[in-house]
Amino acid sequence: MELESKSIIITGASSGIGAAAALLFAAEGANVVLGSRRSAELETLAGTINRDNGRAVYLAGDVTDDGYADALVDLAKKEFGGLDGAFNNAGIVGEMGPIPDMKIGNWSDVISVNLTGAFLAAKAQIPVIRKQGRGSIVFTSSFVGFSNGGMPGMGAYAASKAGLIGLVQSLASDHAAEGIRVNALLPGGTITPSGGEGNPAALEFIANLHPMKRMATAKEIAQAALFLLSDRASFITGSPMIADGGMSVRLT
Questions:
Q1: Cα dihedral sign, 129-134-140-143
Q2: 212 vs 8: CA distance, rounded Å
Q3: Phi-psi region of 194 (alpha: psi -120 to 50; beta: other; left: phi over 0)
Q4: Strand 7-11 relative to strand 31-36, pairing
Q5: Quick one: which of 10, 176, 198, 199 has the fewest CB in 10 Å?
Q6: Rounded CA gap, 90 and 10, in Å?
């Protein structure tokens, strides 16, 4: 029970890595607060966890909305008495294409969700975790924001995820002495609804880009997040932890 009795916020929880994390964290004893834009999916997931003797609550909303991150924190305090950590996993890829052809709206949307959403989450979560004296926050970045080898068409996504790593390192430096660990998790290709699920040809192509010749399951990435949130990672902060099946090695 790696997270026994700890209260953890998970965003992007309605599917993919976030949903896998919710199930895994609850099985490891966490009280989970689920966030996503899709209320029906959150309700179903929370129901599954609660029927399995876990503890889950949910609140639908948009991570770019000022106040939603605070509402998730308030829900954690109300239902579970506080906040011990968060897996800030919400993110979008956006439309892919060269920067000269990219619409400003696409750029703004990707930066807003992936980077400003992370800023709002940290702003809401850190003061509450600080009061408890210790905690851990994990943000989902990407190998694309670390060493992407110039993958074409991903300028907005790469910029947002690289910026997120910088934000994480700054937060880690600012709050380490307060007992708050902050890390970035950098997945490689992962089989999710937004990662080509249901498209065998696309999955095969992406899988073959990885030295391991396969993509990750959502649960594998959730297990990496679990490690960073758990006390097993007690001396790790400010880290861009890569879980990419060797993709960054191939690209460097």
A1: positive
A2: 31
A3: alpha
A4: parallel
A5: 198
A6: 8
**CB–CB of 81/7 below 8 Å?**
yes
C-alpha–C-alpha distance, residues 76 and 25, integer Å: 15
Is the pTM of the predicted complex or chain greater than 0.85? yes
* Residues of the chain below pLDDT 50: none
In contact, 110 and 160? CB cutoff 8 Å: yes
Structure tokens at 249: 């090695």
Measured distance CA(245)–CA(252) in Å, rounded: 14
pLDDT of 145 reads 80
Q: Quote the distance between the C-alpha of residue 247 and its chain's center.
A: 19
Task: Write down the pLDDT at residue 194.
Answer: 60
- Residues 61 and 11: their CA atoms lie apart, in Å, by 10
- At residue 42, what are phi and psi to the nearest 5 degrees? -65, -40
Name the residues annotated as catalytic.
Answer: 157
